[in-house]
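Teaching note: in complex prediction, the entire set of molecules is handled at once rather than each chain in isolation. The prompt given to students was simply: 'Predict the structure of this complex.' The entities are:
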Amino acid sequence: MRTFKGRVIAPGSVKAEALVSHGGLNTLASFQKALQFGDKTATCGDQNNPDLYGKQMLGKALCLPMTIGSTTGGLVLYCACAMKRQPACMLFSKPIDSLAAAGAILADVWLDDVSMPVVDSLGDEFLDYVKDGMTITVTDDGEVIVE
Amino acid sequence: MILTQEQQAILDGSKGEVLAKVMKTLVMYGDAFGAERMVPVTSKYNHLVTSFGLKMMTPVFNLMQQLIDAGVVSSQQFSVDPRPVDPDVPANFLQKLIFTKIMYATQDFYEGQLQKLGLMDEDAFTCTCYMDEVGNKPERGDVLSWAESSAVVYANSVLGARCNRNSGIIDIMGSIAGFVPEFGLLTDEGRRATWIVEIKTTKKPEAQLLGSAIGMKVMEAVPYIKGLDAWLGSELDDAACTYLKDFGAATASNGAVGLYHIENLTPEAKEQGEALIAEGAQVYVVDDAELERVYRSYPVIWKNPDAKPKLCFMGCPHMSLEQLKNWTDKVETSLREAGNKKVLIPTVFTASPAVLKEFEKTEYAARLKATGVITSYICPLMYMNNPLCGKMPVITSSNKLRTYTTARYYTDDEILAQITKGGAKA
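The expected output is the structure of the full assembly:
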């Protein structure tokens, strides 16, 4: 078991199974099929992301360096939250990027009944350590326990 | 973040609950990046990324309606990304039914919302709003609240405007408020390069392939590119701007680049040179072998990799007027060489409505039509985003389209050979 400390972008606490992307998460490419065609498990559709392609993102502790790609990214994440198809939490090894931040903040400010804790700046060591299927616990103050 | 009295009052609700939420969104956005203040948006027009009345976007339409109902709209007019449907683009009966009745059934409703929010005009649908024909071309140093990754990277790099890689919705909120948090690419420090890219190819690198390679390498960083001026020259003429349009779109979609500097060519690089490079910048060398490696790394996700292409899309981002003219010449010449009259694969060239109107005034329009190529204002990406089109073997020289859809990437020369001669070799 290891504990990492990051910065809270969207507050909340949660316990979930880890899903790890070592490359950037292309939000549009990853979520668009799931949102458009009723895939309630939010299967990742990004062909360029071998870590995530074809895997269920709903309810997972999504561990990643950053998000990349289209500037629809933030609103796609916002829609995923509004449609209840979001990951349990998003945990960034790097400082958060503008698109992911927008999605997390829009969901936090404009949606009433959605919780998706977001923590950033967990460090490269976090992504080196965490593996798919590990259990992740996120606390309100940005502590991430991996076991 | 330190807010002015007026900004703090808005945040506290002096101008209503909805505008207070807009303000809260911008403040949280700025806080996430250590912004210390808001700065005024100075461009004449805004640009939004969300152009499509897609069913999955219902939460966005609901949010937009909250803004409209509360009278919280921008004083800035805006252009917006391309329309997702065009009856001129080939589609079978089932596809047309799905496009109009299911996927984009809310397109008219959403365009009505855009009108109320400040759309420039009914033709202001394009990802290349900065083209002269469209008229949304910011001045150097202008602060923008734009989204659309390819437009943002162009505005920053080629025009010298200042804009972060804002997400959709954030784009309109900055415009409504009239100011945006100052961080990242709005600051001198954020515009310094942390990567040096050395171009050592034996021929002019394919714009979309080079952009992809750099995007995947540097991700969100700012690259300072040396050696490309040997191929593009030192003036931002039509040819260079068109190249940089396609190059930048690939850097932004295959990575997350919001600004690049091209030595001796782009405005800040011309003015400041290597002073733009941050201490400790990493180096990436691009030669012929590296471009080949990147090209070969693209997965082919067609069910049958050997399938005969059923459609070709060119113009993601939308083509320039010069590009349409040049491609008309190239298609004609190549067809003539092959002894063919018309293209062998249904082919669509996309451009903004304003550019297409200008193109129609030239003698090239009739010549291109005679080759069988269709012109359209559509967004190819939106066209491809459904299971029916996703299963079609579609080819493109757009690395952005490749990234977001099942379309298969080929170089420009290979595309030309495929559509005019039926083979991938140039």
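Point out the following to students. The longest helix of chain B spans residues 321-338. The two ends of chain B are 56 Å apart (CA to CA).
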